[in-house]
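Hi support team,

I submitted a single chain yesterday and got back a structure, but I'm not sure I'm reading the token output correctly. Could someone confirm the output below corresponds to the sequence I sent? I've pasted both exactly as they appear in my results page.

Thanks,
R.
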Amino acid sequence: MSAASPVPTSPAGASGQAPSTRLAAVNDRAARTSLLKKFEPPLISLAAILATLLLFGGFLLLDGLNPLDVYEVMFRGAFGTSFSFQNTLQRSAPLMLTALCTALPMQLGLLVIGGEGALVVGGVAAAVAGLAMRGSSPYTVLTAMFFAGAIAGGLWIALVGVLRAYRGVSETISSLLMSYIAIALMNHLVEGALRDPESLNKPATRHIGEVNMLGPIPGLDVHWGLVYGLIACLVSFVLMKRTVFGFAASMTGGNMRAALLSGLPVRRLMVLTCFLAGAAAGTAGMIEVAAVHGRANASLVAGYGYTGILVAFVARQNPLGVIPVALLLGGIGASGGLLQRNFNLPDASVNVLQGILFMVILVSETLYGKLDLWSFARRRTPPKAPAVGVTA
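Hi R., thanks for writing in. Yes, this is the structure output for that exact sequence:
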């Protein structure tokens, strides 16, 4: 009896892989690519931070300092002790809120950089509300200050959204210019109609009263503003990632023309999102008045609004990502005094580090979707050898 010819074990026969096998390989590659794309933003942000440390280390070497020693002191000044860590937490609270002022409009493709102005306007409005309600209970006073600060900051940035939606004015330019207007308006008010006669060297409003101040969290030397910031980030994440409103905002940011053709109220989305963004920054101003200064004065212009822009970019406009990045940059700011004492570095060194980070983050924007690191996920899986037939 002669040997029978080999029997193929799959419909593909000698052509290589079966259709089901090839489909499984394609699905596997797609799954790997999707997984890697999820890790792309944090990986690139982390690489940008490391590159910033290397560049800033070069400046330190030119100054005759050991970068490792400087970074070790920075870590101690930010997270090394209970006191330093609580100082970091306190500094990170306004950064979370001002970062949302940039992160939320970016969901619609709007670059708003007016967090500093919204913070100042919110702080002044909160101080006025606190003084107007000073005879009421502390809870009533703080509630009035919260709503006054949030609404004032929200309306301030909502005006930016109105200009963009109905007049086509660049939101980046208008929000930046309105920050200067807000600061000038604050100076005019605290040096004029709202000035406390007893504030001689540093014009300010009257104090809202110690009993009306926002106290510390029990067990910590950190004010309740930290809780405000955490709640705002969590609520913003749910709003933008888990609701119809967030889906509409994301669709508008991805393709505004498609959103208009789909019948979405794009203009209304712009104005409302800008209002929410400004409300977050305005709340930061209220916290600065109610928990730190007790009055509105030039101390409100501390740069939290501008640093919040950097926080939003490093976090890739993710409201949850804002939390750790705000802690990181808050820690860098908290370590500035220790660097000055230990290494005789100017206090502006921290600003130099933040500026380098901002530039590196802008450059890293060109790397998304272009790194060879992800190319192996797109390679074709080597075909399996054809199975040997069975002989009779």
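A quick pointer for reading it: Residues 19-62 form the longest helix (44 residues). Let us know if anything else looks off.

Best,
Support desk
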